[in-house]
Amino acid sequence: MSDTTFMGVPRDKIPWFPTIDYDKCNYCMECDTFCPHRVFERREGDRKLVVANPNHCVVFCRACSKTCGPDALSFPNKTEILALIKQIRAEESAK
Amino acid sequence: MTHAILSCNGLDKPEGSVAREVAIRAAAATGSEIICPVLLHRAPARYKKALSENAVIVVDGCSTRCASKLAESLDIKVDRKVLVSDVLKSSGIALEPTLNLGPNGVGLAQAVVDGLLQSLNASSEPAPSAVSSVVFAPPTEHLVVTHDKFEFRIPVADYMFNENDVWVRAVDDVARVGISDYMQQSLTDINFFDAPKTDAVVDQFGELGSLESAKAVFEIIAPASGTVVAVNAEVVANPGLINEDPYGKGWLVEMKLTNWPEDRELLLKPEAYAKTVKHKAEEA
Ligand code: SF4
Ligand code: SF4
């Protein structure tokens, strides 16, 4: 998936993905069950869930956070990410 | 219109205690019957009359949304919903981390009730003459993306899409917005449209309310920036219209566009969206 783009910008240049707050997460796995894009992965050990494939996350989607009871998932600021995408697009077209 | 209130009992989280308090206060303010979720789950017949004669308000404490899911599982038609954790986030109130309500918890409960009463009063007034005079003719020709036994339709003309499966159709500076056939099929039967307020000002990729099905909650991601000028009242009353006719009768909101020439640069034309759908369907 690393070769994919979002609005013409390489996906790996866009830092949009969930961050798990391990102080809040209770490993109910609702988010992983819900997301069809294999962003999360279950692991053995202390942290039973990790964001293994951040670039699989659909830019601007926040759907899994709506399944999370303890509110353990957070996302970047949309306005900042959008500004970044526009900036990269402008740089690309100026080349 | 009288109401019945189905709330989460919330015995294990501070937000749950607030939800319970909301139910008690809202019932007192509106003369509504309270539906106990445990008894409803155990003996649904006990509430048959209350549920059939009243508009149902669901109060969830946290995003686990137990009360909503219970309503879904029993096919209860829901008139409106509140999610305490959402109000908590936008209120800036610091909720005490205890199960007994502190002063902030009580304040939050009252704020949720006030918001609820306001929305009940607003909807008893006649709706503003909202829908624009622009005529949006239904699409006639479609591209079809097939995957396994599924077929996803995409209108060939006039519609543009964001990568979050939301379409926009602009006529001058007014646009209709809805979700694609692909998303409608992924969600399966949609049973609730939490609509944005008319007059809400939204940025491109901001939130235009959400849709719920038994499978998921779908945040509607604005395909363009503008002001919400109309909400499709027929869809609020009957969200199944989105499944029946996602590009026509199932439209969600109308917006007055404020930055269309720039916003459209970040949208996909039908052929490009068709490729995205193919890709998503293969991945899912
Ligand atoms: S839904 Fe929330 S609490 Fe549950 S596993 Fe995911 S992050 Fe953790
Ligand atoms: S935001 Fe959407 S795509 Fe990203 S991990 Fe959550 S559900 Fe998956």
Task: Output the keywords.
heterodimer; A: 95 residues; alpha+beta; Alpha-Beta Plaits; two-stranded antiparallel sheet; two-stranded antiparallel ribbon; 2 helices; 6 strands; 23% helix; B: 284 residues; OB fold (Dihydrolipoamide Acetyltransferase, E2P); 4-stranded parallel sheet; 27% strand; globular; binds iron/sulfur cluster
SS content category of chain B: alpha+beta
Using only C-alpha atoms, the radius of gyration of chain A works out to 15 Å
CATH topology label of chain A: Alpha-Beta Plaits
CATH top level label of the largest domain in chain B: Mainly Beta
Count of spatially separate domains of chain A: 1
How far the N terminus sits from the C terminus of chain A, by CA atoms, comes to 25 Å
| CATH H-tier superfamily of the largest domain in chain B | RNA polymerase II/Efflux pump adaptor protein, barrel-sandwich hybrid domain
Q: How are the strands of the largest sheet of chain A arranged?
A: 1-2
Distance from N terminus to C terminus of chain B (CA atoms, Å) equals 43 Å
Question: Into which percent range does the helicity of residues of chain A fall?
Answer: 10-25%
Number of strands of chain A: 6
Q: Ions, cofactors, ligands: which are bound? A: iron/sulfur cluster
Assign an overall shape of chain A.
elongated
Report on the architecture of this protein:
The complex is a heterodimer of chains A (95) and B (284). Chain A is of the alpha+beta class and 95 residues long. In chain A, 23% of the residues lie in helices and 15% in strands. Chain A has helices spanning 30-34, 78-94; strands at residues 5-6, 9-10, 19-20, 40-42, 49-51, 73-74. In chain A, the strands form 3 sheets. Chain A has a two-stranded antiparallel sheet. Chain A has a two-stranded antiparallel ribbon with strand order 3-6. In chain A, strands 4-5 form a two-stranded antiparallel ribbon. The two termini of chain A are 25 Å apart. The model of chain A has no long low-confidence stretch (mean pLDDT 90). With 284 residues, chain B is an alpha+beta fold. Chain B folds into 2 domains: 3-124; 142-283, OB fold (Dihydrolipoamide Acetyltransferase, E2P) (Beta Barrel), CATH 2.40.50.100. Chain B has 11 helices and 15 strands. Chain B has a 6-stranded antiparallel β-sheet with strand order 7-8-9-15-14-11. In chain B, helix 5 (84-91) crosses helix 6. The N and C termini of chain B lie far apart (43 Å). The A-B interface holds A 6-7, 30, 34, 36-37, 58-63, 65-71, 78-79, 82, 85 and B 13, 62-64, 85, 162-164, 203-206, 210, 216-219, 221, 266, 283-284. Bound molecules: iron/sulfur cluster (2 copies).
